Amino acid sequence: MTGTPRPAPASSDSRLLGLRGGLVVSCQARAGLPLHGPHHMTAMARAAVDGGAVGIRAEGTDDVRAIRTAVELPVIGLWKTDDPGVFITPTPAHAIAVAEAGADIVAADATARPRPDGGDFAGTVAAVHRLGRLVMADVATVEEGLAAQEAGADMVSTTLSGYTDGGTPPLDPDIGLVARLAGRLTVPVFAEGRIHSPAQARAALDAGAWAVVVGTAITAPQWITAQFAGALSA
Ligand SMILES: CC(=O)N[C@H](C=O)[C@@H](O)[C@H](O)[C@H](O)COP(=O)(O)O
């Protein structure tokens, strides 16, 4: 690629600097849930802005497009499929659609599991970079984080820890993985997955996270309700 200007290090990118030390709220509700759809997810995103979020993570081109229009914060977009194995933005085509819907950052599964198109994560990175957007690599292990950085990811998130071995995911967030990734990578590390309290979010930041992503505990009222109901029935 002679003649192509070398991009500045990702951590000096304003889209990343704006997220540093802050809370990204993941506004997602899959089909069948009461809050599914761009109308409700845009309202969630607006509420997150009012509460002090520095970024929004959103799923599906309809939600990404609507939230992009409604809020000024950076939007981390993704596209979940029903594929076995890799299911978060599994191909360059999915990533391009998410970027074209308005995502500033495209999140994609960077695990080594088989992809529906037989491609690799580097292909998704290249497609997103051609559109001038950044890539967040969703990983479950340190090795996957290192490979994602090598493949060109601009940041790595612990999103998939606990979800790739076929077992029941643990209840707690994987703060240990945050610390191990932060100790090994040069790109920013995001803490994501099962962060259910402000104290856990703080612990993730203290462990070296660039920023913290929280979804369920903020944007899933059915889960929040179940916590209260469970405490009363115990
Ligand atoms: C594993 C997977 O599919 N994670 C998804 C990734 O976008 C979302 O379902 C999560 O809500 C998001 O990662 C935030 O995590 P939590 O909702 O635990 O705060």
UniProtKB/TrEMBL annotation:
UniProt record similarity statement: Belongs to the NanE family.
Encoding gene, per UniProt annotation: nanE
First-level EC class: isomerase
A single GO cellular-component term on record: cytosol
Reaction(s) this enzyme catalyzes, per UniProt: an N-acyl-D-glucosamine 6-phosphate = an N-acyl-D-mannosamine 6-phosphate
Pfam families: NanE (PF04131)
Highest taxon, organism lineage: Bacteria
Name used for this protein in its record: Putative N-acetylmannosamine-6-phosphate 2-epimerase
Organism listed in the record: Streptomyces montanisoli
Enzyme nomenclature, EC number: 5.1.3.9
Its biological purpose: Converts N-acetylmannosamine-6-phosphate (ManNAc-6-P) to N-acetylglucosamine-6-phosphate (GlcNAc-6-P).
GO molecular function: N-acylglucosamine-6-phosphate 2-epimerase activity
Any single biological process term in GO: N-acetylmannosamine catabolic process
Keywords, ordered alphabetically: Carbohydrate metabolism, Isomerase
The protein's annotated pathway: Amino-sugar metabolism; N-acetylneuraminate degradation; D-fructose 6-phosphate from N-acetylneuraminate: step 3/5
CDD domains: NanE
Lineage: Bacteria, Bacillati, Actinomycetota, Actinomycetes, Kitasatosporales
